[in-house]
């Protein structure tokens, strides 16, 4: 922004916290997870989900493993109310899953919520009211701290009275001082303890105190200080579950959550892929998979992230960005040549050993979350030899010799530069075949035969029929192997102005058992080099075809 605009803003107050401990902590276990996709996420949609969409997303959340799901704001609309009733009346609530309902601390809304949850086996009534100075001044017209605290306390009293009206439902209470992130810590603590005095929680029946960063005002370390201060100063800490609910206004919602867990919180609210108002809520998939990448069991199953994304996108009509952590189309994709080379080497090493995951640029194995290796390396004009070799190897079974890779790479990414676009795997393979495989122009092989009856002193004899510049030639030669015999036969044709510098061959992986590939490097007497590749059911003839290809490319 313009410098003249800066006088509107000031830095956020830090927390006076002596001997803070969270910087030395390490996340070693997972928190309680609560999905708020069906409430907070739904509230942020341009077109809120209908009941069938909410039900499909609910079933996905259950399948992933969420045991606490905020299903809506049943007192806010008939759709929200009817969704809760559908889950109850059609017996769609799995055993062990708690349904959480949000409600403002207002009497008629609380009573309507209890009508909605009647018959739910396990319910969390999530009550909230705004507590920050900004909200007290603007939203509540200058309400005093006592008036704000009274809203929370009176709402809690009513909920406690209404528990007996739903005898089949086990009720847990969650209280959120909305805008905790910019509420005075002492006041937020005072309100929460006022709620606890009414509810009378115990270690065996704790209250959930949700401390939302409703708006992300400052850096994640300050958020962690707020959480640790609160945990240190809360009476009866063992009777409360401290819950986090971060937003992403500054783009650091994940960091704030992770540091908040280090600071003492033990529950996390968020959504799949971070859907939420403004810049979004916490992305639970990211935090859980971050933990998985450190070997921590989370209780959530994101082993099929493509399915989770597909259901999410269909139900919410939102799109997961290409660079979204773990789920985006391009997050396991390298275009950079140096990155591609490092990934290829790492993948080759990891597949040949039983060691822990350690591949440059990839924090996790994509297959562990349902992604495939196909998309890891993709080719444009910025790509290099390693990535192209990776694709030809993994997708088509060609193990290009390392010394040949720069030549193939240059050819392919010049094509990408000319086309001005990313090349598909098929386009890469087609270009490789056209430029290097069984190349025929001035010289072509019509027939080739090893004469096994003419083997003498360990040498072999071959006969071949060639077309050179339109004329047919029959040649014959001896040598210590099929390729050497063919080279000697070519010399009789006057075609020996080269040295054979390298020869490799292998069966083509993933192809027919009869498919073989060979690679030959030739050097002309004037120092020019050319690589050729031959493919044939016979590994001997594949080598001969590779030699013919290289000769054609040497000219």
How would you concisely characterize the structure shown here?
By secondary structure, the protein is α/β, with parallel strands linked by helices. The protein is built from 17 helices and 14 strands.
Entry keywords:
single chain, 555 residues, alpha/beta, TIM Barrel, Double Stranded RNA Binding Domain, 3 domains, eight-stranded parallel barrel, three-stranded antiparallel sheet, 14 strands, elongated
Describe the structure.
By secondary structure, the chain is α/β, with parallel strands linked by helices. It has three domains: about 20-315, Aldolase class I (TIM Barrel), CATH 3.20.20.70; about 335-420, no CATH class; about 445-555, 2-Layer Sandwich (Double Stranded RNA Binding Domain), CATH 3.30.160. It is about 40% helix and about 20% strand. The strands form three sheets. Strands 1-2-3-4-5-6-7-8 form an eight-stranded parallel barrel, surrounded by eight helices. Strands 9-10-11 form a three-stranded antiparallel sheet. Helix 12 (about 335-350) crosses helix 13 (about 385-395). The protein is elongated and about 105 Å long. It starts with about 30 loop residues before the first strand and ends with a helix. About 40% of the residues are buried. The mean pLDDT is about 90.
